[in-house]
Amino acid sequence: MEHIPAIHAAKVGMRFPARVRGRYTGVAVLDLDLSGVAPGRDPTLTAFLLLDTTLREDEAKELRGGHSVEVVLTDVDQARQQLLASLPAPFDWLTWNGGTVRSLAQRVRDTNDATLFPILADALEDAGCTEAELLARCRDPHGDSLDWLAILLATQE
After folding, report:
1. What is the mean pLDDT of the chain?
2. Kind and range of the H or E run holding 152
3. Domains of the chain
4. What pTM was estimated for this model as a whole?
5. In the beta sheet, which residues pair with residue 115?
6. Helix intervals (H) in 17-146
């Protein structure tokens, strides 16, 4: 039987249970548990949660080795075998007002139109987001790569 690497089971937007392997300046190194989607393969993959590209940044800063956490993949680079993750967005944000936040995020992702981030910030706030730093970054996105946010909100399962 041909061996298919577990990374092929990892898709952007998928949620995974993870254990924090270590926490370093600006990053948490995670072991993702893929046993539910990649049976018969090595059931873990390494992912990186960058503190400046995650939701609930204050919560992410408290992560330490051995902690269990659920994450959503925001980037899967199969060529470099690199995975990036974020803490998930609350379901209420994604479903608010008929899915307005998800729809706006999909439009930003599909068009690369950064001028929509301030509108996305308003929708997030109306949906219940209280992350002041995240909202401020969205309202003034110049020079700030927020692609991870659009991808997360557009694809999170």
Report:
1. 90
2. helix 147-155
3. 6-86 (2.40.50.140), 91-155 (no CATH)
4. 0.89
5. none
6. 57-61, 91-111, 117-126, 132-139
